[in-house]
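The freezer alarm interrupted the setup, so I double-checked each line after restarting. Inputs confirmed:
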Amino acid sequence: METGRIRHRRNFSVSRLLSPFSLVIVAVALTLFGTGYWMFRSSEVSQAEATLIAAEEKGVAALNAGHIEVAKLEFAAAAAALDAIGREDGHARWIRQMHRETTAASELAADSLFEIVAQAEQWRRQQESGVRAWEDHFRLTYGETWMVFETTLWPADDGSRHRIDFPLEIGETPVRLVTGAAFLADLPENGEPREVVLAAQLKRCRLDRATRESWVVEFEPATAFLWSDLENYRAIGFEADDLHAAKKTAELLAKQTAQLGIEKPGT
Amino acid sequence: MRTAFRIQVGLLLLCGAAAPGLAATRSIESFQKLESEWPTFALTGTVFTLEGRYSSMSKTALRFEKCNLSFQAREGYQFPRLLTRSRTVEVVGSLQKRRGRLEFVVDRLKQMPSDLDRLHSELAGLRERTAEAYYELGRWVQARASFYEDEEFAQEAADIFWRGIQQERRQLEDGDAEGLLALAARLPDYNQPASLQQEYVHEAFHMLWSASQKEGEPPAENLAVRLKETLDGADTPLTDPASELRREYLADPLTTYRDTTDEETRLKLHRIFYGEVRLATIEGVADPDGRDGYMTAAKIGQWLPERSDLVESWRQKELMYRLANVTEADRRDVVELAELFNARGQPAHARQAITAWLDAREARLRERGPGGLMQLADEHLSLLEDRSKASELLIEAYELSPVKDEIAERLEKLDFVREEGRWLTKEELRARPPDELEAAVSEGRIELGMTGRQVRQAIGVPTAVTRIASRKQIYEIWIYGERDSSRLAVHFLKRDHQPQAKMVAISQER
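Predicted 3D structure, all chains:
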């Protein structure tokens, strides 16, 4: 008898849930929710579109005036607006690229690679726990700052995807640059060297664990990107000392722009 | 009775009819014209008083010049002895038929003054010395001289006519050119020489010319046309400018013309005169500032080809006008103007035109910034080949422009080199005092402190280059040699305040 009553109670719960009235309630609730979400989303999109237009305009003006910091903030706002809208077209890529480039240009590392590693060597020699102390100092001083390279990428043999040929020695201690497996992952790798202009964030400067006789400078692979804009390139100080080199760089940047699928406004 | 009465009445009537022949003296010329009526006169016994020049004369017989009639003294009459040398006589008589032929029977003969004496007498006795009086007298002399074929007397006619012409000339109002032309047209009728007619025509046209000049307006086209049609030689270009003759004529046209006797020179004077009038019609409508100088020159060349001096003068005038207003011209016009000056062997003016035009454009182009400076530099190069000014402008543009490649390319084409933040010509570079680094370059060595240019010159172009930008500095490494071999690495550092990267280290990769 108890079992039957229990059985009867279960049957009652399911049937109440599936009753026409409750289905209607659920449907109404879903509709209300959907409508509300759609309205919220529409409002968000239209606000983002307005933000995008204004921020892009201000960003371009700031670039033209040479105010990199301001340009960075404006293009950041523009990029966020693009994310809200969900655009992925050529112009949107250009805005995002400007965001990346202005960020890199305004957050360049304070010292050259040579000076950074020279400091590291000095820390090593002067302090007993110099290496660890150095790594902490590096993280505080140079961590997540940027460097921009104009170089040749070679196939790497250290697990990285690409290798930057930069024969540097501090005293007699060689320096090796490590990019990582995800460094410019989208760049096709065909076993041949390729000239590039790129930017990447510094990650670490450490002594080689195995040999302890060379310094390793690591870059954050996920941050690496190809450069596209010639004006921004010049703004960070690159200047060719002969016409041939200047033309070559301009052609390279144009090629990279095309590779990135960027559509610059006015082109 | 009745018959005699009839005869007497008839005689009386005949006497009455003969009365006119008796009253008026006829010349032999007019009597000769009545030759067909002589027989009638012989029948009627008409009495004539005739005068003329005799060709021969005896005591009873007489012959007049140009008359084939015999003049005989009447019976019992002898011609009186002539007291003067005049061969003009007057006879009174009538025609009669004698021995089957007509003769003039002279009842009375009287010597008359010669034609010349008569002329002098008439001249002295002219009551009104009008032109017409002279002309009438001249016509008598002319007719008389013509009848008697007396050339010497005919000259007197020309003389009398000349007096009449002078009288008529005096009566013309000042400046009555048309009156003078009308008088000139009649001069051949009065046996006047063609040169006098030319003189009058010339003077008449000169009056018209002077009148038009006083009015201050260009002479009407029709004056030039009339000159061309009237004065022989006016339409024939001179083979040489005849500057001396022109100068003489223009100083005193009437006297020069009058004093010129040979026909060839007069034809030249006609051309010169016509040329002046035609020139006035052309120059009268030309713009005095010369802006239409070429068009004026073309007209002068068409009408007065011998005036090449004026053709060139007007062309030059237009060119100078255009030079004075070159700042308002467009590029095409100023280039054309310079070419025209150069074609005329005036390179200084050509340069002046272009320089003035460029100076005027400079302020406007400077407002456009580096782009305007570049355009100005291009103009200095292409128009003046002024490399110095062009490079000066390009260097200025370079310092202003954020985009320097194009400017750098142009400067390099002008043989400029960028060295330590400055643009130097290759000569300036070579002229710099030799320093250790340049010495090393020439020896193919590299030293710390060298620029990229110096390293390239010393040891060549690197195999690979890596440049890294951090804040306010660029570090770059030039690699010489292939991977996996012994390589040379040259290190450069450029800080923000430095114009160029300098070599800071060198390493050999093993």
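Quick read of the result. The interface with chain A takes residues 402-405, 408-409, 412, 418, 451-453, 456, 464-475, 477, 479, 483, 487, 489, 491, 493-494, 496, 500-501, 505, 507, 509 of chain B (CB under 8 Å).
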